[in-house]
Amino acid sequence: MKEHTPKDETGLFTKKVSRRNMLKTAGVGGIGVVIGASGFGGLLTLSEQRAKGQTKDIVPFYGAYQAGITTEAQDNLYFASLQVTTDKRSDLIQLFKDWTEAAAQMTAGKLIGEASLNKNMPPKDTGEAKELSPSNLTITFGVGPSLFSKEGKDRFGLKSKRPPELKDLPKFPLDALDDEWCGGDICIQACADDLQVAFHAVRNLVRIGRGKTIIHWAQTGFQRTKQADSQKTTPRNLFGFKDGTVNPDTNDNNEMNEHVWVRAGDGPDWLVGGSYMVVRRIQMYIEVWDRTILKEQENTFGRHRDSGAPLGMKNEFDTVDLEAKDPSGNRIIPEDSHMSLSRGDGKAKILRRSYSYADGMDPKTGSFNAGLLFICFQRNPSKQFIPIQERLAKNDKLNEYIVHRGSAMFACLPGAKKGGYIGDSLFG
Hints:
The chain is α+β, with helices and mostly antiparallel strands. It is built from 10 helices and 13 strands. The N and C termini lie far apart (73 Å). Residues 66-223 form the Dyp-type peroxidase N-terminal domain. One of its GO terms (molecular function) is heme binding.
């Protein structure tokens, strides 16, 4: 008699799977197993999980606000600043429509378009993210002041819509800006827990924009991974200090409305629900820093390196007292420390979302070409980032160890609704 193959509750024939083999399938790098209250359930491929909405690493593209601003920072960044080469408004509108569709597909973990069997044509998707998880991919779009007008020319009938806040940042003292790292008509910020997924997103969006846009500059970035830091502590920069301790609470709607989101009455209505993004490419002289004694390093930042606590305190989030003095009458936190100057009176807050970069060797010096791609979001740059940076540029002790090479500002558009497209409030 032939051995009978048992049926499951669906009536389909199933192959008997041992517990050991099941555990192997569920191991690191395995395809995903759906586990119910009764234990192991049926095996689902990654594509099947996506279809059933069971993946946990998808950040929805559509919404009132763009993702990638208040989203918990992912492990990796790929940032691109683009120049628009077309002079047709209709081309630009269609580009944003195409980008919206593609971004929604990629953030859901899908390839762009349907697979084509025509081997005499290039595939619609470049393919390097096939079989990879969405990895919490977010794609954030912004527009620069030069998209509205350039050399006095109203490029796309948008000049009258440029918000007064959206303009090139001033050149601050000690800036050593390179044109190749400054400005841009449009920016794309792709963040993901996998760098290949982030690069795939920008690569395909740039490909869609071919003939209408070109890359002006681009930068990869990284933080400590979630796997390496399961406690989700404040990230550290390449100087070894925590970066972003005093960020506003992204879960507090009142704080976000006060400090991050553009609101009615702030400027043109088309930007309500958006935010201003400032990007600064900061090169760090890490070899010089590595020869600096710990006490001097801590006085430079105004914090203890190990704990991140303000000098004289024990814990990272202890209340800062800039007036506290030691027995000799000297301020415990130096007045020219980075923390003291960036804090000011404590009223102006920005949402930092920065990433470190390491681009090999600086050919001019033979040292590491490494630093910080400083990114921050705010409601009013003239009241937030600019006065903060003016104080830092004049007196910050950290200036001995860094130099600003790149600078740009973008207006990050409001979120898109299904059926609409990113930027429809601007072009409507």
